Amino acid sequence: xxxxxxxxxxxxxxxxxxxxxxxxxxxxxxxxxxxxxxxxxxxxxxxxxxxxxxxxxxxxxxxxxxxxxxxxxxxxxxxxxxxxxxxxxxxxxxxxxxxxxxxxxxxxxxxxxxxxxxxxxxxxxxxxxxxxxxxxxxxxxxxxxxxxxxxxxxxxxxxxxxxxxxxxxxxxxxxxxxxxxxxxxxxxxxxxxxxxxxxxxxxxxxxxxxxxxxxxxxxxxxxxxxxxxxxxxxxxxxxxxxxxxxxxxxxxxxxxxxxxxxxxxxxxxxxxxxxxxxxxxxxxxxxxxxxxxxxxxxxxxxxxxxxxxxxxxxxxxxxxxxxxxxxxxxxxxxxxxxxxxxxxxxxxxxxxxxxxxxxxxxxxxxxxxxxxxxxxxxxxxxxxxxxxxxxxxxxxxxxxxxxxxxxxxxxxxxxxxxxxxxxxxxxxxxxxxxxxxxxxxxxxxxxxxxxxxxxxxxxxxxxxxxxxxxxxxxxxxxxxxxxxxxxxxxxx
Length: 492
Hints:
Elements: H1 7-17, E1 20-23, H2 32-39, E2 45-48, E3 58-61, H3 67-74, H4 81-89, E4 96-97, E5 107-110, H5 116-119, E6 133-134, E7 137-142, E8 149-153, E9 156-160, E10 163-166, H6 173-183, E11 188-195, H7 199-204, H8 220-228, E12 233-236, E13 244-246, E14 251-264, E15 275-278, E16 284-286, E17 289-300, E18 305-307, H9 314-335, E19 340-344, E20 354-359, H10 369-380, E21 386-390, H11 399-409, E22 416-418, E23 422-423, E24 436-437, E25 440-443, H12 470-479, H13 482-489
Parallel strand pairs: 1-2, 3-18, 4-12, 20-21, 21-25
Antiparallel strand pairs: 2-3, 5-17, 6-9, 7-8, 7-11, 9-10, 10-17, 11-14, 12-13, 14-17, 15-16, 19-20, 22-25, 23-24
Helix pairs in contact: 4-8, 4-9, 9-10
């Protein structure tokens, strides 16, 4: 991610790579832009240059929608992104403060000039949504005891010109920072909400709940610095003492969390009854009574882009998955660097609800290590509810291939493990009101001694272009599934 320290530098790279989709026609942030973002999911990064009601403003999305694109920025193969992140987390580069000019503070709006919906093209995703929700707001808070920066994302429904909700789930590090302020007698917690920044910063701050790679007190901005190979820059907020903003953000909302004021995410005020917005788990999230975020200033670049990720899209799933995968990778390689290869959260695992581990046994003495790796994976991230272990010959990024391994290699009598209750994500069906549930693991590997029984035939690789005209090659390839293409690429 070297050289990609802002949205501007990212756009230049995307244009060079031919990976940018620009929509010039006027698009409405109410339903229309979200519909287009949904329809272009997993494609090029999309920029809307003509936003209804916001002349001169642009909206960007799908930055993280394609793992191959992210891997290209990192200089690695997609299946080894977890190793890249895990290595970076172990060599943090401390952020640096700017004393003077910060690009994110080119324009400063305070007092009666603060009006979120008039200034920012916040979207409403579906007709059932509770309202306009900021989905790409990176909340930056500083630990009052250690000074370490915590970066995290929280959905924020706009309530008025200078206020939003801020929904902080149990287990989030921001909640622990809020508690420290309250223990010190401060009910107002100074924060900034940063929209759009370099991809390393957006990624480094996307970890959810408790994960061992970036525990409470770990500085996410230092993690971002390691990912991009240079320090992240920050600056003091203009209106809020004790708050700091990302110097290279596109847009910043300054203010404080009012822990003495509960507001509803939805107009009826009912807890957990009405719909809020489509969430990362794949369902409509419920609306709750949460704390208010009071905005004291809006700062931005003169020509800022508003980043608007959809929680349902691959962009958010990837953002949740990569830190979770890195945490699992770090734990498993410590257990057995010889046997453990890599890991991947399939898209249907919704980022952090499950993980696939791939191993490579080299001796019969390696038998059983897969069980130790399962325990390591479940411990590395509290939300992890499902673990599947596969052999080295399995394409762990292809769900059909993983399912095939499950069906053909899992001994139902001995290779399925269900744990006692532990902490799980509320998105899992097993989760209860206390955030606990059982977890399950599948050993979908062939034992070392029986590996010959599971050998797969190797075909000679051929170039269809040498045998068929281009139109016929296109007809054949156009009908082949991703699963088949995966096997053919490996001579299977």
